[in-house]
Amino acid sequence: xxxxxxxxxxxxxxxxxxxxxxxxxxxxxxxxxxxxxxxxxxxxxxxxxxxxxxxxxxxxxxxxxxxxxxxxxxxxxxxxxxxxxxxxxxxxxxxxxxxxxxxxxxxxxxxxxxxxxxxxxxxxxxxxxxxxxxxxxxxxxxxxxxxxxxxxxxxxxxxxxxxxxxxxxxxxxxxxxxxxxxxxxxxxxxxxxxxxxxxxxxxxxxxxxxxxxxxxxxxxxxxxxxxxxxxxxxxxxxxxxxxxxxxxxxxxxxxxxxxxxxxxxxxxxxxxxxxxxxxxxxxxxxxxxxxxxxxxxxxxxxxxxxxxxxxxxxxxxxxxxxxxxxxxxxxxxxxxxxxxxxxxxxxxxxxxxxxxxx
Amino acid sequence: xxxxxxxxxxxxxxxxxxxxxxxxxxxxxxxxxxxxxxxxxxxxxxxxxxxxxxxxxxxxxxxxxxxx
Lengths: 358, 68
Hints:
heterodimer, A: mainly alpha, two-stranded antiparallel sheet, 2 strands, globular, B: mainly alpha, flat
């Protein structure tokens, strides 16, 4: 199988799409409302050491996937356990994104369509995208990034008449403990999820500097989220941001330029479909790479359809309603610690020790 | 209605992806593939049929709340 190589620009674009992911709809963190920008900045600072660890792992073993690195470092049995955990995390994350998509579509547009149909249409497109390979995913991410940035700027310009920056006062209305807790939530959802990009490390070009890629990706993603927060809070105000499930959607709904340009909330749906596709495709590729490695198969593309069916199944059985889905967000930040922080740190420490010995 | 769509999609997957795999003699891949297909088909049809399949969400929630 010829090796797939993607350029650093493409990786950065896919990281941005991955980070922006669900937050483009959920509006980052609604609990803090006017203080959520502070939490976002703290989360961005917190993520930097973790990113450096991810990049260091790639730098130590260039041209190797995360699964290969784990097997090289931790031996056969332990590596299999870690890879199974990694596959589970990738599949669960993919299912979460799919479920968000189906619930959002159900609430905003297709009230009577059965959930499985919405999930299935999204899955089919994702399968097509990931079966086309990592190179295609890279090129697709560049297009997605351009479109979502254009739409974000467009919605911001159009909503200038509705903006009221007094909504940001009083600053620091919440105490420091609450802000730190929220920043930890943002840290794990969406920032630290980029751990899944480790599984595509073999596709990074050798010339690329992984530190630069991850840092740029995260910072640009963070700037994107910051503008989403500023737009939502300045348009909606604190009470509405807190009570809405999908604040971005409501914020763009208010746009009305001379009774001519109205109801452009569809742009938000387009945004979400595009980034949601990219995010699920990355999860799918990560899970099928893990699976291929677990069973010693030749090509990861063979396993993409069965893994997508598993993700589809998880998405159908995961939650019974929207309330359960939103209840899971605070639980998620603790649940994701082993996958996002502990496993990479163990791998990094062992890699450093082995590297020094050699 | 949903059930018919599911059956059609699964049929297409088996016809266009799984059977060529057997023909190419990729037996190991095909076996893993078939197991996953049967498993997911059963769970999805149960869920559509209105039978409550236990969700991993509750397990995760219980574990996390017992820790914190």
